[in-house]
Design a protein that fits this description.
Two copies of one chain form a homodimer.
Chain A (H helix, E strand, L loop, with lengths): L20 H14 L2 H12 L4 E3 H6 L5 H13 L3 E6 L2 E6 L1 H15 L4
Antiparallel strand pairs in A: 1-3, 2-3
The structure holds a DNA duplex (30 and 30 nucleotides).
DNA sequence: CCGAGACATCGACAAACGTCGATGCGTACC
DNA sequence: GGTACGCATCGACGTTTGTCGATGTCTCGG
């Protein structure tokens, strides 16, 4: 139950009609996974990486946190479907899943162009 | 400490350089406020309202939750700077603060156009 | 086969969160 | 003034969350 297939489409926040309770409960976990400064930086670090992916060992050095804590945060992001996990030899590489971020972006996209 | 003045600009998730720890800690509260299905629906309901605002009494009817709980959620959204509060007579009207939503949208905007 | 290193998992703990019932505070109407 | 109503606040509760140290699992090199 780790990867989410149908996380796509969702009514943007202000598209004329309010979003349904079911849709809210579908998107909320994505936001919940991102609603943490550490996880936000993790995603940012991975997304900003030239290769589009980052090794856990590198991510670990970017924080003053235990390896266990970073691993936990990565697990949360992976479980939410935001990160892809790829084990190569001894190292594990995480990459952002563009579709997931796009789903979230879609939420706020239309909302931004509210009345001035 | 309820309204936030400098919630604007923030490095989008994948703009080439990773976001700083300070920026992450600035944006995370906004996401945290939105990372709840009830609050997401509240914002959606208010944003989708024709007048751009909604009375608490109406919002209250849209959920199977106590009035105290809805009031609490509205307080969280208001404290995060996402909602404006306007008391008119006996009723209180909440309206979305476009700038706050735009700040969040900005985060994911550039991120969506990651490598294919 | 054995040791070392890279991550994940486990168990624990304090802090934060979502929800509720009860109560307080304004406002309007009789 | 009294009463009814809309909303906020308070106190309490069970649950979830972020963090840690310790331990487990896998992989590679000797």
């Amino acid at each position: 139950m780790t990867s989410d297939a149908g996380l796509a489409c969702c009514t943007p926040l202000a598209t004329g009609a309010a979003m349904s309770a079911a849709q809210a409960e579908q998107v909320a976990p994505l936001l919940k996974a991102l609603a943490d400064s550490v996880r936000l930086r993790l995603v940012s670090l991975i997304a900003a990486s030239p290769s589009g992916e980052a090794c856990v060992c590198d991510l670990n050095d970017a924080f003053d946190l235990t390896q266990a804590t970073i691993s936990h945060h990565l697990k949360v992001l992976h479980s939410a479907g935001l990160l892809d996990r790829d084990k190569r030899g001894v190292w594990v590489y995480y990459a952002v899943r563009p579709a997931a971020l796009a789903a979230v972006a879609n939420l706020f996209d239309t909302a931004a162009l509210a009345p001035a």
